[in-house]
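Quick one, tokens below. Sequence please?
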């Protein structure tokens, strides 16, 4: 498995009229007083060293106004061909004094970043040691491009010996929207994932059937014995199901299922973090390309006419912000 390069960026609000700046952060430099950036980056560096070369961290510090921070992030993504950006959910405890600013920044990155952008709802870790990770992960797969993108990420982490993964593939009987093509792609993604994990005792796959939105929610609410849940943002819901559930959504950036999992009622008494993954399709003019920019390009479905490509997207296995 290729190592992951993580670009860790500490975002600092710019006060005054100075120009925005993003610079590499030197964790080796001795400082008389440790600042917040230093503590964060030293923790990331220690994690990298404890990962056994599986993760390489490149630390950066960005000082910029909140309303233009996304521009520097997007440039960093483009310059380094980064396939995945992870953002903290704005309702995390430390952001209470600037919730609106962080939410606006997240939405700007989601709108303008040329890659997949995941929103991470942090509920804390029950146990952590870099050389002895033991983590239970659940994935709710209902179908569609976003769920397939989530499975591309799960395919990557399934090879980690400390990750136990349970896939719940939910078949909605009321779902009349999903096309035959989408269904075939969903089946292909699930088949490739299971074939790639033959003999992996840390991976399980369960199929569930839900007749309506109530049964769907009830089925999801039963599964709470996990440290992390990964879901796609959008799903191939029928218009009826969407009308039933959308009025209850508080944060649209998390999608219908993600919003329910992040709600205070659902999280009560459960230390379960959440990662919401939307997909991004990149279509280049003049070349035969359909690319979902992900860890595996939606499980290797990238079509290239290499003579017309100005960037080698095969490098996209390596970067995370």
């Amino acid at each position: 498995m290729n190592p992951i390069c993580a670009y860790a960026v500490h975002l600092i609000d710019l006060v005054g009229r100075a120009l925005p700046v993003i610079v590499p952060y030197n964790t080796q430099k001795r400082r008389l007083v440790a600042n917040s950036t230093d503590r964060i980056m030293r923790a990331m560096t220690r994690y990298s060293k404890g990962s056994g070369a599986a993760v390489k961290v490149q630390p950066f510090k960005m000082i910029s106004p909140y309303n233009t921070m996304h521009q520097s992030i997007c440039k960093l993504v483009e310059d380094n061909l980064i396939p995945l950006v992870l953002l903290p959910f704005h309702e995390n405890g430390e952001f209470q004094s600037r919730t609106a600013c962080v939410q606006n920044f997240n939405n700007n990155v989601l709108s303008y970043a040329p890659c997949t952008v995941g929103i991470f709802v942090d509920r804390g870790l029950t146990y952590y040691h870099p050389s002895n990770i033991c983590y239970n992960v659940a994935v709710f797969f209902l179908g569609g491009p976003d769920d397939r993108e989530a499975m591309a990420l799960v395919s990557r982490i399934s090879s980690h010996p400390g990750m136990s993964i349970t896939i719940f593939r939910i078949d909605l009987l009321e779902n009349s929207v999903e096309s035959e093509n989408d269904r075939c792609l969903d089946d292909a993604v699930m088949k490739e994932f299971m074939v790639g994990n033959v003999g992996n005792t840390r991976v399980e796959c369960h199929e569930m059937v839900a007749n309506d939105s109530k049964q769907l929610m009830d089925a999801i609410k039963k599964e709470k014995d996990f440290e992390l849940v990964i879901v796609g943002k959008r799903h191939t819901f029928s218009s009826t199901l969407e009308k039933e559930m959308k009025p209850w959504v508080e944060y649209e950036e998390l999608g219908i299922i993600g919003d329910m999992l992040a709600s205070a009622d659902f999280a009560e008494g459960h230390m379960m973090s959440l990662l919401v993954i939307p997909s991004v399709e990149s279509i280049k003019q003049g070349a035969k390309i359909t690319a979902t920019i992900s860890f595996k390009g939606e499980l290797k479905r990238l079509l290239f006419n290499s003579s017309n490509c100005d960037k080698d997207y095969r490098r996209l296995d390596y970067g995370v912000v």
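The chain is about 30% helix and 25% strand. Confidence is low (pLDDT under 50) at residues 282-318.
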